[in-house]
């Protein structure tokens, strides 16, 4: 099956482009929940995603309820928030026969507060020093979370070794 990254009303094209690059490199599907704060034709998005945008399976959703309707097993939905109690390493993502969905909020306001309260058991966080920063960068957070899922899954369908002929690296 597949890992999925979903972005709720993303505002910054560079973050979305960087996340698209991560999705391309990890065979992760990207879901963009409208409205977007930019055009997907935006020059900044193309610069950030450059050669990778067309290599990513992207699904656009009109709103959050439309996205949620596409998830076959809601127990595999994880809401990423700095306000969560559980850390991102707590859930078991190891079953490669299941889809795992990681939903990230808008850069400025996160996910809707009421939605977060109704789904508190689905919330996960990356530990951080809140005294020094408001939040980690969205694209960095998405990469950390998806790579934890992939690590637990044994990095399926990813090249685990990369040999360079010219460098004789083995």
From TrEMBL:
Reactions this protein catalyses: 5-carboxymethylaminomethyluridine(34) in tRNA(Leu) + S-adenosyl-L-methionine = 5-carboxymethylaminomethyl-2'-O-methyluridine(34) in tRNA(Leu) + S-adenosyl-L-homocysteine + H(+); cytidine(34) in tRNA + S-adenosyl-L-methionine = 2'-O-methylcytidine(34) in tRNA + S-adenosyl-L-homocysteine + H(+)
GO molecular function: identical protein binding; RNA binding; tRNA (5-carboxymethylaminomethyluridine(34)-2'-O)-methyltransferase activity; tRNA (cytidine(34)-2'-O)-methyltransferase activity
Record key words, sorted: Cytoplasm, Methyltransferase, S-adenosyl-L-methionine, Transferase, tRNA processing
Residues the record lists as binding S-adenosyl-L-methionine: 80, 105, 126
GO CC terms in record: cytoplasm
Keyword tRNA processing: yes
Residue stretches making up the tRNA/rRNA methyltransferase SpoU type domain: 4-147
Main location (coarse class): cytoplasm
Transmembrane segments: none
Superkingdom of the organism of origin: Bacteria
One family name in Pfam for this protein: SpoU_methylase
UniProt subcellular location: Cytoplasm
InterPro entries linked to this entry: Alpha/beta_knot_MTases (IPR029028), SpoU_MeTrfase (IPR001537), TrmL (IPR016914), tRNA_m1G_MTases_N (IPR029026)
Known EC number: 2.1.1.207
Biological function: Could methylate the ribose at the nucleotide 34 wobble position in tRNA.
Family matches, as HAMAP family: tRNA_methyltr_TrmL
Similarity comment: family membership: Belongs to the class IV-like SAM-binding methyltransferase superfamily. RNA methyltransferase TrmH family. TrmL subfamily.
Name this polypeptide is given: Putative tRNA (cytidine(34)-2'-O)-methyltransferase
């Amino acid at each position: 099956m597949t890992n999925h990254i979903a972005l709720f009303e993303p505002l910054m094209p560079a973050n979305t482009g960087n996340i698209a690059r991560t999705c391309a490199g990890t065979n992760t599907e990207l879901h963009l929940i409208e409205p977007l704060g930019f055009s997907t034709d935006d020059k900044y998005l193309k610069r950030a995603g450059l050669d990778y945008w067309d290599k990513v399976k992207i699904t656009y959703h009109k709103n959050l309820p439309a996205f949620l309707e596409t998830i076959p097993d809601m127990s595999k939905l994880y809401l990423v928030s700095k306000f969560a109690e559980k850390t991102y390493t707590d859930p078991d993502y190891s079953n490669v026969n299941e889809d795992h969905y990681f939903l990230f909020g808008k850069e400025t306001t996160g996910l809707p507060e009421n939605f977060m309260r109704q789904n508190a058991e689905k919330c996960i966080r990356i530990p951080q020093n809140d005294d020094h920063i408001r939040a980690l960068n969205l694209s960095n957070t998405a990469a950390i979370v998806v790579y934890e899922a992939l690590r637990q899954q044994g990095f399926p369908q990813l090249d685990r070794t990369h040999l360079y002929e010219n460098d004789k690296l083995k």
